[in-house]
Amino acid sequence: MKRTLLVSAFAVMALAASAQISEVTKVKGDGFDFIPKGLTTTGVITPYSTIGVENNSSNQTPEFTVYDASFNVEKTFQYDPRVFKSNLVPMKALADFKTKKVVKEGYEKAYWDKVDGVYGYDGFETPITTMDEFKAAVSQLIGDGELVYFTDYKGNFAYHNKYDWQEVSGKYDSIYVSERYSYYNPSDNKLYEVNDLTKLVEVDMSKLAWKVDDSRESSEVTQQERIMQTEVYDFDANYNEDSYVYLTQNVFNNDDKYEFLVECYRQVSQPEASANSLMINGIENGKLVLCQDVPDKYYESYIAVKNEDGKELFTIPNGNNGKDLSIYRMNGKIYIGNSEYLGNGEAQYVIYLLDNTGTGITELARTNVVKSAKTFSMAGMKVGKNAKGIVILQGGKKYFNK
Predict the structure, then answer these.
(1) Sign of CA dihedral 149, 151, 154, 156
(2) Which of 95, 167, 206, 355 has the smallest count of CB within 10 Å of its CB?
(3) How far apart are CA 354 and CA 338, in angstroms?
(4) What's the domain count of the chain?
């Protein structure tokens, strides 16, 4: 918590220096914070402490303890976050591709071995005019082997090994295939070996037959609800600095029970597939191997207002980890500002009026649509842009959020 170590240290020093105090009240938890008086029904600054709230420990039930002004325990309550699980199933599909353009010619070297009656220092002893003649000449030169004959992008007779003659790199709309093969140059009657010829390719995503990839193992991913700080700007109290606290008392309704925010999850249908979310894992049988880890369940986050009894008072749609959600007190009213995802990479900022008598929230206004990006965890769960660890933006881009 923000003041935990520093405040506790000052308190201990102050008590030790005082001869009038003989016993110190032990604060339960890791330290304590304060609810501003404007956010309580009593109008009194209220201390509280937490256990397992800030770090959302999976092996510890989050607990709040509220104190009076003398740090006597007023009440203690817990909230047991729900855990959502999904399995990541490895899938793969083979995709056809075609050349957009050659971006790198690679490097060439002439065949150097000499075979009497077939190939000498001046190349093939008999000029080649057909593919059948080329196949026969190569067979005499190097043997049959596992060769595949074709016509290269310049129209030359060519061949390559059946396996490992192509490598793929890049991602999304910039996929490159590098090739190793040999071709016949009719201008000098010689055979040339080409290495690292690189092409920008276009992938056909129209007819993908997805199958379980037995070469990779599936994995289980869990996502746990978390208790969030409440960001409040109280302009009616003549200050506009934000208060980040886990507990409030009179923001969301007028009773004496304490309230807090929870990032919750609900199961949703599978989101629209995006070609940009796919991984490329080599080439098989002349086709690109596309891979993806597909969750068997998809979840979307939202924010719920809970009271100290665990009762859900109301929900706020499309919450984004609290960083784009703010609460404002102005002219005797309470407003909620929230960034909401609309789909297709677009979002709006929405203002709600909060009726804290218990009837929930009423939408007042929306800003113009702006380009945004929905963010998913590796488990396929919608999370906020500030979620920790590896996250995936709408469109497939992955990054590590510290």
Answers:
(1) positive
(2) 206
(3) 12
(4) 3
